[in-house]
Design goal:
GO terms for molecular function: metal ion binding. Pfam families: EF-hand_13. The chain is mainly α and 343 residues long. It contains 19 helices and six strands. It has a two-stranded antiparallel ribbon with strand order 1-2. A two-stranded antiparallel sheet has the order 3-4. Helix 12 crosses helix 13. The longest helix is centred in the first third of the chain and has 22 residues. It is globular, with a radius of gyration of 25 Å.
């Protein structure tokens, strides 16, 4: 034992492997032992870590078989309808979704499937590799809903939980003022803090799939996933395409000015002193440090780790105001913390 941790050496590991029988033979190898060997000076591994490793391997194997049953074409990919069927049939096995009304199932499935396709099918081919599904953490999040004791915090941060799906769908219904099941540009403008610029919203409706100029729930989910995950490459790719008005594959001073002008106009409407574009442009280029000093590519934006800040500055007045007043807000937070400490 090391504290609470039970350890085992290689010799005993092999002995256990022999006793465990042929079914477990594949796990009791030198390769697996070496993989789990970290810093123990006696050359031992943690029994619990080995147990978890085997559990994970078996789970991945079972899940791969389970997903493959839905691979109609037998090519190692799932289409949207395949994944929809998989998740629909998974719902009854997840206790955390017991409370969902049957009438909401189709919206739940759509909400869940969208996350897989938004992040794993960036080229929008309409299919994703089963291997990619297994490699990402989304299935872990989904199958976490098997846990009957899942905390409220975990449910709120898990896209696949019932509260999260109901939140997203509830927002959609609240925005849909004329109750036609679709969102117009005017209805979408009330999303979040209702401070996104008209110029950006115009681009959303130009580039995204719409029906008679209105957005359906599936298109709305892509929009939400992009704005709620702005640090992720797939989300930045979505927003970058909207910012790249000339479709050149990069942002230049013209495109930055095109979007920031709308922020300046909103500032005037709200009685705020407009900020100089020159200053903001310099700050953006300083943050991103692109390879070409006059152009910002999508890769530059991703590499800089500042993509979320840059996009927010250009599309959302509230986001820009928060960025512009970040030092004052930090000082304010510190003062509030000090006041709490004093009390």
């Amino acid at each position: 034992m090391i504290g609470e941790e039970a350890m085992i050496n290689y010799e005993n590991f092999l002995t256990v492997g022999e006793k465990a029988g042929p079914k477990c033979k594949q796990f009791f190898t030198a390769k697996v032992f070496a993989k789990l060997l970290h810093t123990d000076s006696y050359g031992r591994i943690s029994i619990m870590q080995f147990f978890n490793y085997v559990m994970r391997k078996v789970w991945l194997h079972q899940t791969r078989i389970g997903l493959s049953l839905y691979d109609v074409a037998g090519q190692g990919y799932l289409r949207e309808s395949d994944l929809e069927n998989y998740i629909l049939e998974l719902i009854p096995t997840l206790p955390q979704l017991d409370g969902l009304e049957k009438s909401f199932y189709s919206f739940y499935v759509c909400t869940a499937v969208r996350k897989f396709f938004f992040f794993l099918d960036p080229l929008r081919t309409g299919k994703i590799k089963i291997q990619d599904i297994l490699a990402c953490s989304f299935l872990d999040d989904l199958l976490e809903l098997r846990d009957e004791e899942l905390s409220k915090e975990s449910q709120e941060t898990n896209w696949f939980s019932a509260p999260s799906a109901l939140r997203v769908y509830g927002q959609y219904l609240n925005l849909d003022k004329d109750h036609n099941g679709m969102l117009s540009k005017e209805e979408l403008s009330r999303y979040g803090t209702a401070t996104m610029t008209n110029v950006f919203l115009d681009r959303v409706f130009q580039e995204c799939l719409t029906y008679d100029g209105e957005m359906d729930y599936k298109t709305y989910l892509d929009f939400v996933l992009a704005l709620e995950n702005r640090k992720e490459p797939a989300a930045l790719q979505y927003i970058f395409k909207l910012l790249d008005i000339e479709n050149k594959g990069y942002l230049n001073v013209f495109s930055l000015n095109y979007f920031f002008r709308a922020i300046q106009e909103l500032m005037k409407i709200h009685g705020q002193d407009p900020v100089s574009f020159q200053d903001v442009k310099d700050e953006i280029f300083d943050m991103v440090k692109p390879k070409d000093p006059l152009k910002i590519s999508l890769q530059d934006l991703i590499n800089s780790n500042q993509g979320d800040t840059v996009t927010t500055i250009l599309i959302d007045l509230n986001g820009f105001w928060t960025y512009e007043n970040r030092e004052a807000l930090v000082a304010n937070d510190n003062e509030n913390s000090a006041d709490l400490d004093d009390t």
